[in-house]
Design goal:
Layout lengths: L2 H17 L2 H22 L3 E4 L2 E4 H31 L2 H6 L5 H31 L6 H25 L9 H15 L12 H7 L3 H14 L5 H21 L7
Helix pairs in contact: 1-5, 2-3, 2-5, 3-5, 3-6, 3-7, 3-9, 5-6, 6-9, 6-10, 9-10
């Protein structure tokens, strides 16, 4: 059986396990929509200057929550899920089977990508119906899909990599949230950061992949300039995270 076929079979098992935990599945899809409604209700009446354009903040939040949904599915869920599976001995037993490591990780990435695509589709539809947000078309759609796929794969790799510093499942959520939440604020996901943002905030945010991913997603929705350098930087972070995973990933419980 080929590696691709094995990956698809493994992805089916991951998908079944995902949907057999309805509470987790529900909140995976509900969180971005909840935040979208909350932020637009509180802050959606204003405008933000972005890329020389004046963007209504309700439209801004549709793009921001689409990016947030991808990062939640591909970074948070994978990192926390793997930490619990490692402590429960699931990864150790999996390692003892003939299943290749590449298939195991590849199936995780494919499933997370499919969930991310579904999340984005739901968020975009929700935003279109309630806030009359624009839907990417033509070249913008192609660019949007490129940054979406590259970003999803990279954040999956970052999710694998962060498990190398998570000592146990109890520490998984605090460590994951501590590494992602500050970047969400600095990158303008939760609070709009326009052209008049302090220079130091923009400088710090652009060191990390969250800002570049958010900018790429916003370009598809808001009509701002799309930079292929954002795709490159997000991809490089993914490659770096993959190298860390290959070197330090542990299949057995640390404690």
């Amino acid at each position: 059986m080929s590696t691709a076929t094995l990956t698809l079979f493994q992805m089916r098992f991951i998908n079944k396990a995902f949907w057999r935990n309805p509470a987790s599945a529900f909140f995976t899809f509900a969180f971005p929509l909840m935040f979208l409604v909350i932020f637009t209700a509180l802050l959606g009446g204003g405008e933000v200057h972005l890329g020389g354009r004046v963007i209504h903040q309700s439209t801004y939040y549709v793009a921001a929550m689409a990016a947030f949904a991808v990062m939640t599915a591909c970074y948070n869920n994978i990192a926390i899920g793997l930490s619990f599976q490692r402590d429960a001995g699931v990864l150790k037993r999996t390692r003892g089977t003939p299943l290749p490591s590449a298939v195991f990780f590849g199936a995780k990435v494919v499933h997370a990508l499919l969930v991310a695509l579904l999340l984005v589709a739901i968020t975009v539809t929700f935003g279109k119906v309630l806030y009359n947000a624009e839907i990417p078309t033509g070249t913008s759609l192609l660019q949007f899909l490129v940054i979406l796929v590259v970003g999803a794969a990279s954040f999956c790799a970052l999710g694998f990599a962060i498990t190398t510093v998570i000592p146990n499942s109890d520490a998984a959520a605090p460590i994951v949230n501590a590494t992602i939440l500050p970047l969400l604020f600095l990158s303008g996901i939760f609070i709009p950061i326009g052209d008049n943002a302090p220079a130091w905030i923009t400088w710090v945010a652009r060191i990390f992949p969250v800002k570049h991913f958010a900018d790429g997603i916003q370009a598809g929705f808001l009509g701002t300039t799309f930079h292929w350098s954002d795709v490159l930087i997000v991809g490089l972070w993914g490659v770096g995270a993959l190298l860390v995973t290959l070197r330090f990933f542990s299949w057995e419980p640390r404690n």
